UniProtKB/TrEMBL annotation:
The chain crosses the membrane at residues 33-55, 179-203, 235-253, 273-295. It comes from the Bacteria. Signal peptide: none annotated. It comes from Paracoccus contaminans. GO terms for cellular component: cell division site; plasma membrane. One of its GO terms (biological process) is cell division. Keywords: Cell cycle, Cell division, Membrane, Transmembrane, Transmembrane helix. Coiled coil: none annotated. This is Cell division protein FtsX.
Length: 303
């Protein structure tokens, strides 16, 4: 039984003995095609789980990059001092190392930021809304140094480097990515269980054939290899079909640049399209391992 290794898998799939199983093992009816169907469904789901894991990785990088190089200065002062404080902040920002651009938000932009909380008719002029300045920074920018400088030159200004917003977003994306990889493991385990059950059913249904083959001198190794080859080939076929359908479905999703949003970003980009191509060989390997274990167990029971 130790000969049932990866070499057996390769010979069973593409070798000259690939048709041996079809000549030795009688057709098992719907069980064989249920194995193909189950493997295809698992591979289809695995493509989407893989796309989720890769998409959340890109999402975390995009959120990190979008917030890491942007800070906001909030100026809260009485009406007679707001312009002077704003001028002092802008002067300090223009001479701060690492600051690439400075832009004060208009009242219309501030009103747009308040719409989700106060509605579209918020009276910005009647509310003590602080002045907001958007600052784009470079790699040599030091937030703490600017915070100390503003405390001395413009006490009414508060620097927000978005740390409290960036950390939860990146953490959420990391958890989604971990969920995607966990889903892949669960799908692989479920696929192995389905193929193992199919192998047990096929061996149990052909118990009489196994006994006859033993009477005419067939070794358990030959019998096991026949069943392993057949079910491994069916698992490989199913995973190939499911992977192809999954990749087509991913390709038909809306483009994230034109539609926007997180769900439309669920997909592959560039060399990422090569990752799903690993699912069929992995599915065949899982089917081989599961079938081998089932065959060894069942042949010890069938006497």
């Amino acid at each position: 039984m130790r000969a049932l290794d990866l070499a057996t898998l390769w010979r069973g799939l593409v070798g000259r003995q690939a048709g041996l199983a079809d000549r030795i093992v009688p057709p098992a009816g719907y069980t064989t095609w249920l194995t193909v169907f189950a493997a295809a469904v698992m591979a289809f789901l695995a493509v989407f789980a893989l796309a989720l894991a890769l998409a959340t990785g890109r999402l975390a990088q995009r959120w990190e990059a979008g917030l890491a190089h942007t800070v906001t200065v909030r100026i809260s002062a009485p009406a007679d001092r707001i312009e002077g404080e704003t001028a002092a902040v802008e002067a300090a920002l223009k001479t701060t190392p690492g600051v690439q651009s400075v832009r004060a938000l208009t009242s219309e932009e501030v009103a747009a930021l308040l719409v989700p909380w106060f509605g579209p008719d918020v009276p910005v002029d009647a509310l003590p809304v602080p002045r907001l300045i958007e600052v784009h920074t470079g790699s040599d920018f030091e937030a703490e140094a600017l915070r100390l400088r503003l405390a001395g030159e413009a006490p009414a200004a508060v620097l927000d480097d978005h740390t409290q917003w960036r950390r939860p977003l990146v953490s959420a994306a990391a958890r989604l990515r971990a969920l995607g990889w966990l889903s892949l493991l669960l799908i692989g385990g479920a696929g192995a269980a389905v193929v193992s059950l199919a192998a047990q059913v096929a061996l149990a249904a052909n118990g009489q054939v196994i006994r006859v083959m033993r009477l005419i001198g067939a070794r358990d190794l030959t019998i096991a290899q026949a069943f392993v080859r057949r079910l491994t080939r069916r698992a490989a076929l199913g995973t190939a079909i499911g992977t192809g359908l999954g990749m087509i479905s991913i390709a038909l999703l809306p483009d994230m640049q034109t539609a926007g949003g997180f769900l439309t970003g669920l997909g592959f980009s560039g060399w990422g399209w090569l990752w799903p191509l690993l699912i069929p060989p992995l599915g065949a390997l899982v089917g081989f391992v599961a079938t081998r274990a089932a065959a060894l167990r069942m042949l010890r029971e069938v006497r």
